[in-house]
Amino acid sequence: xxxxxxxxxxxxxxxxxxxxxxxxxxxxxxxxxxxxxxxxxxxxxxxxxxxxxxxxxxxxxxxxxxxxxxxxxxxxxxxxxxxxxxxxxxxxxxxxxxxxxxxxxxxxxxxxxxxxxxxxxxxxxxxxxxxxxxxxxxxxxxxxxxxxxxxxxxxxxxxxxxxxxxxxxxxxxxxxxxxxxxxxxxxxxxxxxxxxxxxxxxxxxxxxxxxxxxxxxxxxxxxxxxxxxxxxxxxxxxxxxxxxxxxxxxxxxxxxxxxxxxxxxxxxxxxxxxxxxxxxxxxxxxxxxxxxxxxxxxxxxxxxxxxxxxxxxxxxxxxxxxxxxxxxxxxxxxxxxxxxxxxxxxxxxxxxxxxxxxxxxxxxxxxxxxxxxxxxxxxxxxxxxxxxxxxxxxxxxxxxxxxxxxxxxxxxxxxxxxxxxxxxxxxxxxxxxxxxxxxxxxxxxxxxxxxxxxxxxxxxxxxxxxxxxxxxxxx
Length: 475
Prior knowledge:
The protein is mainly α.
């Protein structure tokens, strides 16, 4: 009996492991199979937006499977494969899509070793990215550390095509393992988790994910290049949560995008580069497994970071007194998603204005982002903190006011997420602390009362950060 292990690949089309299993079913007419998803109690214990969104997609996927004649079994517990082998002693093989980076890769290796010791074959496939972490390397076999030459080499490789899956074959060859008890326990625990979160669900079906992709590529792509940096505009694809959960495959996206790339569309090329960054950071993470825990640049591993609880709370809650940063953090906390310009501005402020360790910010984003990807998130934070691969130079410090004026000139994004500034005139929206009493009264927003005053002077804080990186304040 074969098992198909779903993980972050919650779809029944263009799924590499599913495609491989179908080939086995076609080859061996007597073979059967079943599908399962492991509900790990560790992820249910941590109540956060990231986990809530993911489990909502899991539940939606299970319903879709049912509607299409596929049974998705849930296995609950910290030792899923002991449960699986106990309930299904005739298990012969497990098919799944691999993880390459850090502890996820170590977990997969340990599971494979355990199954092999118990006579079960495993078949793992690269599915989440275009290319395996070892596919795009320098001529000397070492990994790239700069994105631009990586992207040039990445573009030269042919891109994999979507993998077709015949659901009828899967429907006809399903096994019926005795997993009812663990399935029911998983459902109960997920229900308890949902109740504790007390948050409206926002799952999206696989067909809706594909429709969302088509709308962006065929209708909105032309506006992407010029407006992608403006957070007040709906100019980005918003596909990242669907890619993260596997509701949408990068191969499917490329298949729809390719005609525009071939036509020479600069917008398509720009979007393709964003997809390539995922591969790049996955490659970095696979070769540098401590990406989330340690600065890639060794000379910054003894930074004398500061930490003040009140500043940490102000940053998390969007109460720094800098409207653009606060709008970004409030969007993150309310939506579980954050425009990339907001991600960079908020991250830079934490590191280079508050001088708080980037690893704390990375972990906060982990909990809040519904599109959280460990490689991209850690890589992005190290880029902003000037400690990682192809990072911004340490003397490049984002000005929260300049970012605000440049990318939200009319304050539309700010007013969307910081309602206490709704009536502040444009000339003060980026620096509300400059309002005089008359302007503040008219705007019904008294700085320091209705909206916080900044507790740092950006120019001074930025210079202190530069001194830290130069070594003047290192340990």
